[in-house]
Amino acid sequence: xxxxxxxxxxxxxxxxxxxxxxxxxxxxxxxxxxxxxxxxxxxxxxxxxxxxxxxxxxxxxxxxxxxxxxx
Length: 71
Known about the structure:
Blueprint: E1 13-17, H1 21-30, E2 36-38, E3 41-45, H2 52-62
């Protein structure tokens, strides 16, 4: 979550609000990253075998689609 400027809730399941969930999922799939489109968000579920590099790569791919959190 911190990689894309979102607050982290302490769980391995993260749902990121995006402007176009379908396009975000396509970009992730194209980069070899598995995630699920859920409404106006994309859900990531990390596991013990995911590395910090995996998380950074996923964050970089989804960053252009992220809806900025309210300030």
